[in-house]
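User: Predict the complex with FNR.
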Amino acid sequence: MLKADHWQSQIYIKGFAGKINSISPDFDKLEAQAIQKMDPKAAGYIVGGAGRQETVANNRSGFASFKIVPRMLRNVEQSDTSATLFGQNFASPFWLCPIGVLEMVHPEADLAVARAAAETGIPYVFSNQSSVPMETCANAMGTAPHFFQLYWSKNRDLVASFVQRAEACGCAGIVLTLDTTLLGWRTMDLDAAYLPFMEGKGIAQYTSDPVFQKMLDAKMQDPNGTPPRPSLSWDLIKGLIKSVNRYPGGSFVQKLRSGRPMAAVQLFVQTYSNPALTWDDLAFLREHTKLPILLKGILHPDDARKALDYGMNGLVVSNHGGRQVDGSISAIEALPDVVAAVDQRVPVIIDSGIRSGADVFKALALGASAVGLGRPYVYGLTLDGQSGVFQVLRHLMTDFELTMRLAGCKSVAEINRECLM
Ligand code: FNR
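Assistant: Here is the predicted structure with FNR placed in the model:
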């Protein structure tokens, strides 16, 4: 992997030869260009947050409230950005957040992200709502690190099956997302009356799952199993064609005749999340995997302490990028109390609002073990597939390394609360 200053000087040298990178290092420009390229419904789904978008805004203003105080004359010629998580050493203190339904922005979707992650050595958390089955992505990543993110469905056998598959395809841990047992009030999606899952997008982990297929068999045999059909319209027909095309195996006509693609969407909608979940359910997960379990969506120090009482192995401080509870505390504001509660017993990862090397630096200074990158890589994917994701990651890795060294730190271990005011 290139050192930061090499990637930076490459950009200038290529520019001198008249070649400009396809991905801007300026986040606002990157976001604007990606939005312009996206279908408006996809843009609403990806960029939008819950309600009045206050949490999305808090995630940024939270970072702005902390300032870095650079220190001088500390010999930062050599530097080391590596970080250790669960006994594995990674080149950078990042991971790629689980983000569902990536086929909305690029046909290679999760596969392009998996390949870019493997190129950089950054771990990738496969989403429960991915567009590509976890085994395919894991295969593409070879020995590069990957995790699996789980949404706890209403069917425990399905939960167990997902976890078993994650173990079998070499995932380094299970990231259980707790903040989405119900879908948030996402005004942009509601305005467009659009949910990608209705078109059969983002359900590849389900349609590739043996337990889900058995549930589908049972549903197909149940005369009361299918809800009333809405009246036919051109848009409905287009949606049906898309969901049939997306469903794995068989010809279009075979799949259409079988009725399974439409039934799979209905079954998914009926089962995908479980608002009845409680702390005691975690024992089931613990029984079904030896992998480290991380809880994603922790914002209160009492929940952090409770997670440790229940034997969890890591936490992700996150508000889901502002897509669930509007008016919520930002992740970066929540981080210090969670870190204090955990007292270095397990890794604490943070996401929601990370847009620059400075943000990464601030999160580490407040005690995070690593940070999760979300929307920025989706924008890179939108604009230039695997290469777009790779460039976004290289920009951020470089920005972080330069920030760290210019602030007077040679390694991640030297970044602490004293670096901020
Ligand atoms: C997400 N996120 C998410 N989280 C999760 O656990 N499973 C998922 O499938 C998804 N899907 C998803 C889709 C989209 C379009 C977005 C924007 C986010 C949340 C994600 O993992 C992470 O918490 C946020 O993206 C962090 O916020 P920023 O930094 O991207 O704003």
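The chain has two domains: 22-189+276-419, 194-271.
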